[in-house]
């Protein structure tokens, strides 16, 4: 089983739709969680951190479920500009180091 | 522009040659990370530094890969005796200590091994 798993998609949704992505992780000792966005042929950019209590930033909501070992990202009122690949990141401690592991990403296409 | 920079942006080399990539992090950041990304995959962690100390290198893909950050500022990633399977995007990122997941990425160096 991969350390971090994501459905690669693509998720094809109309403008204005609500879409949700999940990301599962295997290491129960994982400590911190993040969502990144990557546009085609560009570098990843931090979208938001994921806190145990959940967090919201405008149209984006991230949640963590430690019991089931997954994180989620909800995008409301999708815009054409939301089209991108969304990468989840899980950080775990290993021998005093902190190792970030990226999922393969979920592709989102928002169409008119 | 005070973001992360990488040089070169593209590198084409013949199999068997050595290549070296450079990364200049955000100046206030003391942590620097190297990743490899292939098509359809997320970035794959290779190694990272805190200042000049290399804290994790067990994920380097083979002994042909090495990285340095001699003065705690810029870093280099070297691949010796390149193979076609090394063709990928090599990404560098930096962060503050204690915010390991909040990383700022450079534009990457695309390596093509022919």
Question: How does the SSE layout of this entry go?
Answer:
The complex is a heterodimer of chains A (112) and B (114).
Chain A: E1 4-6, E2 11-14, E3 19-25, E4 32-38, E5 45-50, E6 55-57, E7 60-65, E8 70-75, E9 84-94, E10 97-102, E11 106-111
Chain B: E1 5-7, E2 10-13, E3 19-24, E4 31-37, E5 44-50, E6 53-56, E7 65-68, E8 75-79, E9 88-95, E10 104-105, E11 109-113
Parallel strand pairs in B: 2-11
Antiparallel strand pairs in B: 1-3, 3-8, 4-5, 4-9, 5-6, 7-8, 9-10, 9-11
Overview of the structural elements:
The complex is a heterodimer of chains A (112) and B (114). With 112 residues, chain A is mainly beta. Chain A has strands at 4-6, 11-14, 19-25, 32-38, 45-50, 55-57, 60-65, 70-75, 84-94, 97-102, 106-111. In chain A, the strands form 2 sheets. In chain A, strands 2, 4, 5, 9, 10 and 11 form a 6-stranded mixed beta sheet that branches. In chain A, strands 1-3-8-7-6 form a 5-stranded antiparallel beta sheet, with no helix packed on it. Chain A is globular, with a radius of gyration of 14 Å. Chain B is built from no helices and 11 strands. The termini of chain B are far apart. Chains A and B meet through strand 4, strand 5, strand 9 and strand 10 of A and strand 5 and strand 10 of B.
């Amino acid at each position: 089983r991969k350390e971090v798993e994501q459905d690669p998609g693509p998720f094809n949704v109309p403008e204005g739709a609500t879409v949700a992505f999940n990301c599962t992780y295997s290491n129960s000792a994982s400590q911190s969680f993040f969502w990144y966005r990557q546009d085609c042929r560009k570098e990843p950019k931090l979208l938001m951190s994921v806190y145990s209590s959940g967090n919201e930033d405008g149209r984006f909501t991230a949640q963590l479920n430690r019991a089931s070992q997954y994180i989620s990202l909800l995008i409301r009122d999708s815009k054409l500009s939301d089209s991108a690949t969304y990468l989840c990141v899980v950080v775990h401690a290993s021998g005093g180091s902190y190792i970030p592991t990226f999922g393969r990403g979920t592709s989102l296409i928002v169409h008119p | 522009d005070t973001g992360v920079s990488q040089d070169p942006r593209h590198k084409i080399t013949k199999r068997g040659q050595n290549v070296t990539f450079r990364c200049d992090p955000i100046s206030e950041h003391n942590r620097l990370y190297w990743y490899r990304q292939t098509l359809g995959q997320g970035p794959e962690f290779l190694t990272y530094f805190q200042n000049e100390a290399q804290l994790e290198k067990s994920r380097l893909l083979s002994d042909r890969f090495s990285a340095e950050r001699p003065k705690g500022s810029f870093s280099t990633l070297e691949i010796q005796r390149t193979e076609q399977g090394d063709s990928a995007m090599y990404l560098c990122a930096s962060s503050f200590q204690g915010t390991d997941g909040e990383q700022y990425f450079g534009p990457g160096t695309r390596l093509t091994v022919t």
